[in-house]
Protein: Transcriptional regulator
Organism: Pseudoduganella dura
Amino acid sequence: MDRYNSSEGGAIAFGRHTFDIDRYELRTAGGPPVPLGQRAGRLLQALVEAGGRVLSRDDLVRRAWPGREIDDGNLRVQIAALRRALADDDRTLIGTVAGRGYLFAGRAVRRPIRASLPGLPAAFVGRDALVDKVVARCAATRFVTLAGPAGIGKTALALAAAHRHGGVAWAGLDAAGSEEGMLAAVAEALGLAPRQYWRSPATLAAQLTRDGPPPSSPPVALLVLDNCEHLADACSRLAEALLVRCPWLGVLATSRQPLLASGETVLRVPALALPAPDDTDAASLAANSAVALFAARATAAGAAFAPGAGGLALAAAICRRLDGLPLAIELAAAQVPRLGLHRVVDGLDDMLGLLRQDASASASATGTPRHRTLRAALDWSYVLLPAAAQGALRRLAALPSWFTLDDAGALLQPEQSPYDTIDSLAVLAAHSLIVVAHGRETRFRLLATTRAYALSLSNT
């Protein structure tokens, strides 16, 4: 019998039950919380803490009615209420020892109230409407994947939506190199003991079904799987298992590619809105989301950034050159205190220099090595591609800004057949490495940062 100490608050789990010590609430296998009341709650806490030791009538009265004298009938009423709440008709959890008192015969495990949700990035600008859309999509469907290229702001968007949602368990998968590592991260986020649930997504989901939602305030109703692209198949299987077995839980994933799971709704994360090329109005430029992010990041980096129309026009030009990619804009803006606006504009001709800039001081940096530079993030996207798509990306960088399927086919032949070319373009689009514009004729484009990266690979 385990000795359990709940003096730090939180929750205790035993069998199919979870008891919130601070609220005196009992939850059974995913059902709604049932308030026990202070007396019964204190009795249950005392019995569990005793770890199988018999507690006398006087021991229990001191815990539930401190400083008061009560008759035995009051104690029996509260014990009977506890047994009803626990469906313990056969007294396998709360036993009676004739002439001595009561004991708790279950095995209790501490499950602290979790606060796993990271804080919001400081420079989160121009995404309010998109956050509203994500929150609404999560309310309408149980499984949403935010997909988009490196640096587009998927994690920041998921964080903002999660903070509005409430009741969220956050599992960052950057350091998970295998399905086992992914399951361990998810188990930790949900307050489960990870060693018991590494076998498969199905076993983790089955255990969570038995245990019910992890104790938290508000109750966990959304699991965020952040950075899924390198474990797409495993994350897909986990999401499908959770959707089937845990009706109280929704899933929000971030990935550079859709997970292709049953029930998945994919929301492509767009770049920040850009001002029109002929827009020179200072008020209009200052209100633009991409320019506002640039100004906020430049100011945070130490620049006295209060430009007039000319400076705002330069900032807008920088944002357009960077395709509205939030991380690239932040990296460029961080150079303003050292170089000034004009030199930052001139420096964009050396896009590789921007790719190498360290983002560890960025207001939205994740702090993980594969996100500290744009090059590291693009390296990660590149290694996840099949060889044919890698070769296509390197060669497509030589094409002009927008190109057609025929343009790509002419460039990639004879190494790739027309069908191979279509497949490579589909893979690159799925991995968010090319932009697709549908119209009378479908057109494709590499973002400026992706083009610079692909050209650097071609020159090595």
About this structure: The radius of gyration is 28 Å.
